[in-house]
Amino acid sequence: MNTLTRRLYAARAQQGQGTARSVPAASASATAAPLRPAAASHGSDPLAAYRSITREPYWRPVADEVALYEAAYAVRMPMMLKGPTGCGKTRFVEYMAWKLGKPLITVACHEDMTASDLVGRFLLDAQGTRWQDGPLALAARHGAICYLDEVVEARQDTTVVIHPLTDKRRMLPLEKKGEVIEAHPDFQLVISFNPGYQSLMKDLKQSTKQRFGALDFDYPEQEVEAEIVAHESGVDRETASKLVHIAERARNLKGHGLDEGISTRMLIHAGSLIAQGVPALSACRMALVRPITDDADMRDALDAAVTTYF
């Protein structure tokens, strides 16, 4: 064992809790740091932290998406949710997890995420070396819905690890541990991404896409979106309708000065401010206009749209 490893063991031992005794660096050895399993959390239920959706999340169906998802879950089909930002993809997964009574593990994907972040890694502490399941392994081992949000943001060499879980094998190899997890019967994998952000350098491989069923999401019709905004923000229906009209004018500018239009999420933010007594013009500028563009001319055009209704 080299000097650096001895120092690591000694430092970890000194940081132990309570009356844990330090392990002299000179005596640290392979037998002093045995491999042990990850400590069980939340008593006997390793998914206790992911059973937090105890109240029904608000979801306003716009088509047959609920029935289709239920059918997909019945056969444990991996699902892919596609749609613009802020249109309700994450809320839909939360609602379906509640409706099905299943724990939900959500992972926000990013470009620095590694395969180990998903499947797990060995950790070193005062008691030795232990294996810590990643969120994907935890869901597969114990039977949860694993939701990879904006999966296209992750590197392709990272997302490849989901392949064995998304075909008839339904297994997850843990190469570093020398173990293969047979997916729990309740396990399902769900991914989401915004097709508007796709490019030649940032897209899912066809070998990945074709392993999933897909549901398309978009911003709802005017009346439905106004109903959602009024319910979620607490503003009256008339004000919610005005906010939706502003959003539609902004969405028409996508690709003509705006990368993205005003989302339903942003409308709820604006409505929430108005419900708190913030003047409508100020609330719209703060929650709708300023976040989506820094271009002075585009801001003027959006401000003009706001003043048309408020």
Explain what you see.
Residues about 1-40 have low confidence and may be disordered. Strand 7 and strand 8 (about 180) form a beta hairpin. The protein is elongated and about 65 Å long. The longest helix has 15 residues, at about 235-250. It has helices spanning about 5-15, 65-75, 90-100, 115-120, 135-140, 155-160, 205-210, 220-235, 235-250, 265-275, 280-290, 295-310, and strands at about 35, 80, 105-110, 120-125, 130-135, 145-150, 170-175, 180, 190-195, 215. The strands form 3 sheets. Strands 3-6-9-2-10 form a 5-stranded parallel beta sheet, sandwiched between helices. A 3-stranded mixed beta sheet has the order 1-5-4. A two-stranded antiparallel ribbon has the order 7-8. The termini are far apart. Helix content is about 40%, strand content about 15%. The chain is α/β, with parallel strands linked by helices and about 300 residues long. It is built from 12 helices and 10 strands.
Summarize the biggest pleated sheet.
Answer: 5 strands, parallel
End-to-end separation: 71 Å
Task: Give the number of helices.
Answer: 12
What is Rg?
24 Å
Beta strand % = 5-15%
Mean pLDDT: 87
Shape: elongated
**Series of secondary-structure elements, N-terminal to C-terminal:** HEHEHEHEEHEHEEEHEHHHHH
The assigned structural class equals alpha/beta
Bin the helical content. Answer: 25-40%
Strand order of the largest sheet: 3-6-9-2-10
Kindly state the number of beta strands. Answer: 10
Low-confidence stretches: 1-42
